[in-house]
Please model this.
Amino acid sequence: MPPIHDERWPAAAGRRPPRDLWLNTGNGRFAARDFGGRGRDVLLVHGTGHNLEVWTPLVECLAGAFRLTAFDLRGHGRTEVDSIDAEQYWRDIGTVISAMGLECPLLVGHSTGAYAVTAYAADGGECAGVVLLDGFVLDVRRTPEEAAAWRLSRQELWNEYRYGWLARSDEMETYVGRTAAAASGGDGPYAGVPYALVEAVARRSFIPAREGYLRRPTLDDLEAVCRNDVSAPIYPAREIYRRLSVPAGFVFASRGNFARRRDEVRAVASEGENRWFAEIDAGHNLHMQEPGKVAELLLDHFGG
Model:
């Protein structure tokens, strides 16, 4: 994969363009991006259905204040390995940190990526801290059946997102254009997000496959990452925060997925030392809608 430089998001003065990388690991090959910059290593971890393109606006707002990196989660973007279960989802973070040569990085995760960085740190993974962008686990342990009960059906996911679609080239181009226009021009979770950014995220969600392009993640991938061993010590439940010993920021989106559970998120943030709570007036995709405000929080808490 050649180095990239997209004029829609020009490199800041004195900073080299970002470089796309292939990480060959014992767990498979991961697609990653080194955005450059100086200072503390930071690894950005996207949520379900997204890919590393979502971080471009935040990177530009930080203007090289950190050494910023990101990767496509398994089953997403250009990463070649598929999902196995929810545990592998977060265990890959250590694999990527090692492959990129990062030193005790700050981990910033969005949505499912926020849980992934929480689980990695809770399991003792080395990091300087975690910042959770509208991605929290606030309930007690559930059985796999209970955890899956609230999720959309395969048919609903297909109708809404076309996950797992094998499209022709022209079909892919039409889908990317329509998705970008509808998302950025609406009042949903992408309201106010530039068309070019939504287009870049949508385009990276397709990879060449057989005689067309495969829309990722697939429905099988989404089912795989819902598989949790209810007896495992690391589990997506509120108790996981008791295992955190590193600084942790809880960044709440006022119009996001947890809008009705603000007090619960604030309570979790107040239960341990070296934790902080911040609220941003944005939807679930706050790092794309309000990247400047997210950047300010990172600089205030970890920029020294």
